[in-house]
Design brief:
Number of helices: 27
Helix content: 25-40%
Strand content: 15-25%
Structural class: alpha+beta
Strand order of the largest sheet: 4-3-2-1-5-6
Shape: globular
Distance between the termini: 20 Å
Number of strands: 29
């Protein structure tokens, strides 16, 4: 039988036309030229054939096996087909999808365009006008950060001053403008993006690299003594502004701030061009079944902290802290479910009635929620009143110096208030999720897994089987479309990153509607996306190739995967900060002299920020926060090759206690469990590079995905999921060897059957036909 394998392979290729009508599955008749035996066994072998060809290196595949795979993959088209018409996503409908995506936030009560709505401008002209304003103000430099008055990572367009002045759209960066220079500092996630977006008037300062000075160092070395550096105090934190002020003062340079009632010099220019309006979205209650703890209980706990610290009140400025504390969510920042507001919590009830004051545009609150807040002891005040309420002589106010603005700090201290600037306890309370919050996060990820399985099944079929291509921009819209089918879906948790080929190397790439790359069979696709559901927040990255990846792409993907597995599998003693785990994710890349310019992990909120502190895993030595059970973190090592491709593999994890055989020093140990339930593409994995333990991890994870997601999908998606989560078996595995032996035998037997049918029925002459009795062959 083994000796017939090559013959069988050859015959199969000759007998099957290059483009046959092979859309048959079990129970469907095969075309007439297929022997019945062949029609029966090809669909049955489809899963096994695709399984080995996905996982085993090409050199381990016999030619007969490849022949069956080629035929079986064609025969499986009917099983995996997910027509555009069924999804309601024909190419002609994508334009309408774009329009609906761009108007979806407005339909939810948000006046701002949900995507990116700061219009690119004539940068040279903006800088010219700004420098004229600087001359009038008699200042030598202006610093423009990314932040809004609440120190948000993702600012709404109304507050995106740094982007307006520089045209750089990344979420992190600070612009510095002098009379003859314009510079932008940003981190390694945005180096490539900044190089593409900044005009010739700008100099990119690559923060974190050895030869790049800090902003303070640059200003001290570039400005003369008695020079003036201007900032808007409401978009700088207390610690940032005070540190800058001291550093510059030591060099004889004065920091000056925007005075009350004076227009920001950037706004003065922007208003004439068309500055976006303040965000306006309705507020909703975040029910106890998701929050786990009532707002009154949270406020009483904080009041007790204030009494212990002998403080009268605390200013809560970060929007995720306000929303978490008061169990509210909104659509001012749809991607984060934020409500533009401040909160002031009182140690003793204000007017013997109110536990806290909420500073907000009152018209955003539904009447029912307004009444409930009143019953819960919360006084609703105008948004701008916060500056007056902190300006009370001799009052004792707690303001976290890392989150509250320098503007509020100045208003309070100028009035004679006494301040405590320690870290707020809310940060850790929010980061350490209770069981209800964790249950909600699990449900959100099950929904997300079902939505992404449906999307990945569909997009793979369209690209691989139907030879379709989609723009990176459209991929973002389509991902949102598939997620929106899930009950409780609200919005994306950040703008989708869909980077094809070289764009994948731009770590936080955002595709423009025009001029972006197409996604097809020729290049790697890095897809980083997430969603907000009523139950929680998701964030996942998958890297995939719909054609034939190069050996280098597969190797770097596998090295990245090994780092991902190392973090996921880590067990560590209580009290361990994330920095001590960082090298686990990088060591397999380091072996090849490779690395990546971002942290391994960030915290994630529960129906809030997709980036949440204080927990993280990164090489930054300043963050010594220990990982605590209940914290949610990402696990996202990557590799980015400029001009070629990008790789990132991301799941969300929850810190949990681990039972170990020993407890050295009576210390408990911690580890992680996974939230994300989405398969990883096995085609990109080099099995020979993986250890048995790593293969077991992949199989265990995919079995977990199948168990939790299969009941939520059906039809073609379920079949796709079954294949995507099928086990990896090493080529040298004895079980695999037995399977291969069996398949080789079946291949050879079928080939002999076909050969017999062709050769054992020769044309006979009339004489032979009359002289020879019927044969029993």
């Amino acid at each position: 039988l083994k000796g017939s394998m090559n013959l069988g392979s050859s015959l199969l290729r000759k007998l099957v036309p290059k483009k046959p009508a092979l859309k048959f599955s079990p129970g469907v008749s095969a075309p007439p030229f297929y022997p019945r035996m062949f029609a029966a066994f090809v669909p049955a072998l489809t899963l096994a054939a695709s399984s080995e060809t996905l996982h085993a290196p090409i050199r381990h595949q016999s030619r007969s096996f490849v022949a069956i795979r080629d035929v079986a993959s064609k025969s499986n088209r009917l099983v995996s087909s997910f027509p555009l018409q069924k999804a309601g996503l024909s190419k002609s409908s994508i334009h309408s999808l774009r329009a609906s995506a761009n108007s979806s936030a407005a339909s939810q009560g948000n006046s701002e365009e949900p995507k990116h709505s700061v219009v690119k401008n004539d940068n040279a002209q903006v800088l010219k006008q700004l420098r004229a304003n600087m001359q009038h103000m008699q200042v030598d430099a202006i610093i423009v950060p990314s932040a809004d008055p609440h120190n948000s990572e993702y600012s709404p367009p109304h507050y995106s001053r740094r982007e307006f002045v520089s045209n750089f759209s990344g979420s992190a960066g600070t612009a510095v403008i002098l009379a003859n220079k314009a510079l932008l500092w940003t981190d390694g996630r945005y180096f490539l993006q900044a190089e593409q977006e900044l005009s010739k008037e700008w100099t990119l300062m690559k923060a974190g690299l050895p030869n790049t000075p800090t902003i303070n160092e640059f200003l001290a070395n570039s400005l003369s003594e008695n020079a003036k550096v201007w900032i808007d105090p409401f978009v700088h934190t207390i610690s940032n502004a005070k540190g800058m002020e001291k550093y510059l003062a030591d060099k004889g340079i004065k920091m000056v701030t925007l005075e009350p009632g004076v227009v920001n010099p950037i706004d003065d220019i922007w208003e004439n061009i068309g500055r976006p309006k303040m965000p306006y979205g309705m507020v909703r209650d975040h029910p106890l079944k998701y929050a786990g703890v009532s707002r009154t209980e949270k406020l009483k706990n904080l009041a007790n902290e204030l009494k212990t610290a002998k403080m009268d009140s605390m200013v809560v400025s970060m929007l995720d802290e306000v929303c978490w504390l008061l169990n509210i969510r909104g659509l001012d920042y749809p991607a984060s479910q934020f409500v533009v507001s401040y909160c002031m919590v009182h140690a003793n009830k204000k007017d013997d009635k109110y536990l806290a004051s909420l500073y907000i545009d009152r018209t955003k609150l539904p009447e029912s929620l307004l009444k409930q807040l009143e019953l819960d002891g919360i006084l609703v005040c105008p948004y701008d009143q916060i500056s007056k309420d902190v300006a009370v002589a001799d009052s004792k106010i707690w303001m976290d110096s890392n989150t509250v603005s320098f503007g509020l700090y100045k208003a309070a201290t100028n009035a004679g208030a006494k301040l405590k600037t320690d870290t707020s306890p809310i940060i850790l309370w929010k980061a350490t999720k209770n069981q209800k919050e964790l249950d909600g996060m699990k449900e959100a990820h099950y929904k997300d897994g079902a939505a992404m399985a449906e999307f990945l099944c569909w997009i793979e079929n369209e690209i691989v089987n139907n030879n379709e291509e989609f723009s990176e921009y459209d991929i973002g819209i389509l991902v949102e479309k598939f997620r929106s089918k899930q009950a409780g879906h609200i919005y994306h948790s950040f703008p989708t990153i869909a980077g094809s080929g070289s764009n994948g190397a731009i770590i936080h790439y955002r595709a423009a509607e025009t001029g972006c790359r197409m996604v097809g069979k020729k290049e790697m696709l890095l897809l980083d996306s997430g969603a907000q559901y009523y139950e929680g927040t998701t964030d996942v990255t998958r890297t995939m190739h719909f054609g034939n990846p190069t050996s280098w792409e597969s190797e770097t993907y596998t090295r990245t995967l090994k780092g991902h597995i190392a973090i996921d599998s880590a067990v560590f003693p209580t009290g361990t900060p994330g920095i001590l785990l960082d090298s686990f994710a990088r060591m397999h890349l380091w072996e090849r002299g490779l690395d990546f310019r971002h942290g391994v992990s960030h915290g994630v909120g529960s129906g809030l920020n997709v980036h949440e502190g204080p927990q993280s895993i990164s090489p930054r030595q300043g963050n010594t926060q220990a990982l605590i059970p209940g914290m949610v973190l990402s696990n996202e090592p990557g590799y980015y090759e400029d001009g070629a491709f990008g790789i990132r593999i991301e799941n969300l994890l929850v810190v949990e206690p681990k039972i170990t055989k020993n407890t050295f020093g009576n210390v408990d140990y911690l580890g992680f469990y996974r939230l994300t339930m989405i398969p990883m593409q096995k085609k990109l994995m080099v099995i020979d590079m993986l250890t048995d333990r790593e293969i077991q991890w992949i199989n265990d994870y995919h079995q977990e995905v199948w168990k939790n997601i299969a009941p939520r999908v059906s039809g073609a998606t379920r079949e796709w999921l079954k294949t995507a989560t099928s086990p990896i078996i090493r080529a040298s595995d004895p079980v695999m060897s037995s399977r291969r032996e069996f398949m080789n035998q079946v291949t050879a037997t079928s080939a002999l059957f076909l050969l017999n049918g062709l050769l054992m029925a020769p044309q006979k002459t009339n004489a032979e036909e009359s002289a020879t009795p019927p044969s029993s062959n």
